[in-house]
Amino acid sequence: MQWEAVIGLEVHVQLATESKIFSGASTRFGAEPNTQACVIDLGMPGVLPVLNEKAVEMAVQFGLAVNANIPQRSYFERKNYFYPDLPKGYQTSQMAEPIVGPGYLDIPLEEGSKRVRIHHAHLEEDAGKSLHEDFHGMTGVDLNRAGTPLLEIVSEPEMNSAKEAVAYLKGIHSIVTYLGISDGNMAEGSLRCDANVSVRPKGQKELGTRCEIKNVNSFRFVEKAINHEIERQIELIEDGGRVVQETRLYDPDLDETRSMRTKEEANDYRYFPCPDLLPVELDTAYIQHLKEGLPELPDQKRQRFTEQLGLSDYDAGVLSASRALADYFDRVTEICGDAKLAANWVTGELSAQLNRDSLDLQQAPVAPEQLAGLLKRLLDDTINGKAAKQVFAALWAGEGHTADDIIEAKGLKQVTDTGAIEAIIDDVLAQNQAQVDQYKAAEADKRGKMIGFFVGQVMKASKGTANPQTVNQLLKDKLG
Amino acid sequence: MINLSLTQMAHGLASGDFSSTELTQAFLDRIAKHSQLNAFISVTAEEALKEAAAADQRISQGKASPLTGIPLAHKDIFCTQGVKTSCGSKILDNFVAPYSATVVERLAAAGMVSLGKTNLDEFAMGSSNESSFYGPVKNPWNAQAVPGGSSGGSAAAVAARLVPAATGTDTGGSIRQPAAFCGITGIKPTYGRVSRWGMIAYASSLDQGGPMARSAEDCALLLKEMAGFDQRDSTSIQRCVPDYPALLQEPLQGLKIGLPKEYFGSDLNPEMKACLDTAVKELEKLGAQVLEVSLPLTRLAIPAYYVIAPAEASSNLSRFDGVRFGYRCEDPKDLEDLYKRSRSEGFGPEVKRRILIGTYALSEGFYDAYYRKAQQLRRMITEDFQKTLNEVDLLLAPTTPTPAFDLGSKTSDPVQMYLEDIYTLGVNLAGLPAMSVPAGQVSGRPVGMQLIGNHFDEGRLLNVAHQFQQVTDHHLQAPELD
Known about the structure:
The complex is a heterodimer.
Chain A: E1 3-14, H1 53-65, E2 73-74, E3 77-80, E4 90-93, E5 103-109, E6 112-125, E7 129-131, E8 140-142, E9 149-155, H2 162-179, E10 191-201, E11 211-214, H3 219-238, E12 246-251, E13 256-262, E14 272-273, E15 280-281, H4 284-292, H5 298-307, H6 313-320, H7 323-336, H8 339-356, H9 368-379, H10 385-396, H11 403-410, H12 418-431, H13 433-441, H14 444-461, H15 468-479
Parallel strand pairs in A: 11-12
Antiparallel strand pairs in A: 1-9, 1-10, 2-15, 3-4, 3-14, 5-6, 6-9, 7-8, 10-11, 12-13
Helix pairs in contact in A: 2-3, 5-6, 6-8, 7-8, 7-9, 9-10, 12-14, 12-15, 14-15
Chain B: H1 6-14, H2 20-33, E1 40-43, H3 45-60, E2 71-75, H4 102-109, E3 113-118, H5 152-159, E4 165-170, H6 176-182, E5 185-188, E6 208-213, H7 216-226, H8 244-247, E7 256-260, H9 270-285, E8 289-293, H10 301-316, H11 335-346, H12 349-362, H13 368-391, E9 394-398, H14 414-419, H15 425-430, E10 434-442, E11 445-453, H16 458-471
Parallel strand pairs in B: 2-3, 7-8, 7-9
Antiparallel strand pairs in B: 1-3, 4-6, 5-6, 5-10, 9-11, 10-11
Helix pairs in contact in B: 2-3, 5-6, 7-16, 10-12, 10-13
C-alpha cells in the first residue's frame, strides 16, 4: 500500500525581549540558577503579572510577516497543571482568542513552492527547568527561564514529508531572525519544535491517529525524528497493529521515539481566562504602524534577488535564507556593483571558508567592504581570478587590511603587457618542444584541451600574474 | 486615647498631648490584655515601637502627614516584608513574605504604625472566621458569637479598640459582613480602586482591599491613602483618587436612595428590618428621597459566586505545592506524594472544598454548564445593578440577613454558611463599591446597614455614611470587655 504522512508542527520561539513576559526580570541565557527569577517568576503569594508590551509587538510583527489576521482583541488564559518547574501551578497562555490568527508561509521545495497554512500563534510564558543531575536522587529547579516570552506557532497539518517539515521550520526560523524577534538559537532552546505525525493510505481523506513528538530541537533531528516516526507507524499498521494517540519523546542518541504518555494519561488543563490580566486590545493604527516598520522579508528578498539582480533561483534562495547573509551580500553588491559576482563569492569562497573554520557569518574575518574591495580589482582587471583567491585567503588570514594592500605587497597585479607575456610564452614553448609537436599533430577538437597545459605553464612562470585571456589568445596565435 | 477618631488622634499627636509611642503602647497593651479574642495572628510590638519612635521624630520635626504615628493592623492576607504572612493557613504558617503589598507600603508611607497581622478565615474563605488555622476569632460583643469573616480579626480588633483601624479584603462580603457583625464601619471599594499587589489572591476578579475603622470619616482618611493606580496590578484602574475626607460634608438634600425589595424579604430578621427602617427615616430627615427598587436577580448571586470564586481559587491556590515555600510534608516518597500530602495536610476543609468545587467547575465537559453559565449570570447581575443605579444615586440594604450567629452553629452545613452572603455577593460580582455602617443592635448584637454605590462612587457612600453618623451614635458604641 502507498502511505502518505501528514505532519503539523508546533514551533516555540523564545522572543528576544530584555525582560520576561510578565515581570521585569532579565531573560539572559546562561546565568547562575535562580538568579534571574523575581518574586513574580517564583510564583510567590500575592504577586501579579504585568504584560510586556514588547512581547506583544514582536508577536504582531510575526503575524504580519506570515500574512496573518491580527485580531483587535485577544486574551490570556491559564493552563493548569502541576510540575515543579511551573511555579504557579498554571502556565499563562492563550487559547480561545490568540494574538495572531490564521496566516500562511510559502516554503521552497525542489518541485516548486508550497503554501503551508498557520492555524494561529499565541503568546505564553516559558516554564523553568528541572535539573536531574548533581542532586543525588533529588531534582533541582532553575527558574531563570520561567516567564521568558514564547510565541507558539501552530501550523495546520499540511506537510507530507520530513523534508517539508524542515523547509517549514527553516522558513519560520528565517522569519523570526529576519524580524529580530528571536535569536533562533536552537542549541540554547530559543526555537523548539514539537511535531504531530500521522499516516494514512494515499488518497484517503480522513487523518490517521497522530502522535506528538516532543524534543526535536534541531533541523537534523526534526527530519530524523519524523522519518523515524513515519516508518514506525507504517510498520505498526502493516503488522496489523494500531497507532495509539500519545506523546512521544525523541531520543537523538538512539535515533528513536518512545512513549511519554498516552491520551488517557493526558492532563485536563482546565483553561479559563486569566483574571489578573486585561484583554489585549490593538487598534488598527498600531497594527499599521508595525506593518510599515517591517523589514524586507526572506520572500521579498528572494524575489528582488532574482527579478532585479538577475540571480539564479538557487543563489537567491541561499542568500535570502538568513538575514545576515543577505545583508552581507547586499552590502558587497552595493559597493562592487556586480550582483552576480558578489553572489558567486558570497555563496562560494566566503561560505566555504566559514564552513572550513566552523564560523558564523558574524565572526567572519573578512568584512563585506573588504570583499567588495577585492571584487572591484577583479572587475577592473587589476588581478585575475586566481590571484583574487590568494588575496581573499590573505584577507581571511589577516595579512592586510584591504585587497589593494595585499595585491601590492604580494605583487599580484595582473600582467597585461603583451610583450612581457609573449616573452614568457616563447620560453615555455621552447622548453616543451615535444608537447608543441603533439599539439600541432592533433585534431582541432582535441586542441582545446591540450592548450590548457601551455596556459598552466605560462601562468606558473608568471607567478599567476599574467592575464589568462591574453595568454590564451597569444598561445593560439603562436601555435597556429 | 483609645476611643479617639483618627482625626482626633492626629490632633493629639500634633499638639503633643501624647506621642505615637504612647499611643502605640496603649494599643499593644490592649492587644495583650484581650488576646482571648484571638484577633491577631502576629503582633509585631518591637517593630511597631520603632516605627512609632520614628513617627514621633517626624512629628517633632513638623514633617507629619495626617496619619503619621497612628497605629493600625493588617489582615494577614497582605504580604508584609520580613513578617510572617500566613493567610490563616497551615500551608503558610512558616512563610515570611519577601516583599510588601502596595496597601502596606502606602499606609507605611503615610506614616502609620503597623501593630501586627489580624486573624482571618483560611485564604479568606469563610463568613465566620472559623476556618482559620489559628482558631476562630471571638466577637467582642458576645464571646459566643462569630465576628464574621473573612476579615474577622480586623473587625474584632477595631470593635474592641485593640487598634483604631485595620485593613481588610472583600471577595464576597469579607469586609462588610464582619464590620456589620462587630458594629464597625468598613468599605469595599470599586474593583480596581485599590491595588491587589501583595494581597494573597482568593478570587482575583472579585478580591478588593479596603479599610475597616470606627467611622466613615476614619475610612475616608484611610481609603485616600490606600486607593490609586498601581502599575504592578494590571486590573488597578488609572483614575485619580478624590479627596474623600473633603467630600464628607456634602448635604444629602435631593439624594435618591433605592431600597431593593429583594433585600428586605422574608430572609431578613424582622428586628433588623426595624433598625434599618429607623435608619432610612434618619436619612429622609437629612433630605434624602427614598424609593423602592428591584434587583430581581439577587438570589442568583449565590450560585454564580460559588462557581466563579472557587474556580479562580482552584487555580490561584495551585502555587501552594510544597516545592518553593510554605508547608511541605515529611519524607515525601516521590513528587506526586509530595504534592498530595503537602496540600492535604496544609489546607483546611473549607479551602479543600472550594478547590474541589472550582476544579470540577473548570473541568472538560463541565466548563460550559458551570463556569460559562456563571459568567453569563455575572453579566446579567451587573446589568441589573447598572439599570437600578441609573434610577437612584445609591442603594441601601441590610449587610446580612441576621446578626452575628453563634460559633459552631453553621460549620456543619456549608450551604447555610454560604447563604449568609446573600446580600453582599452581588456587589462583588458587579465590581461595585459598598460599605457597611452600624445601624443599631438586636439582642446586643450589632446590625449593619449596607450602602451600595455606582462604580467609583466611594466618595458619595462615605459622605452619606458620615452624615448618617453625625445624627446617630451607633458607631460610637463600644463592647464591654472584661
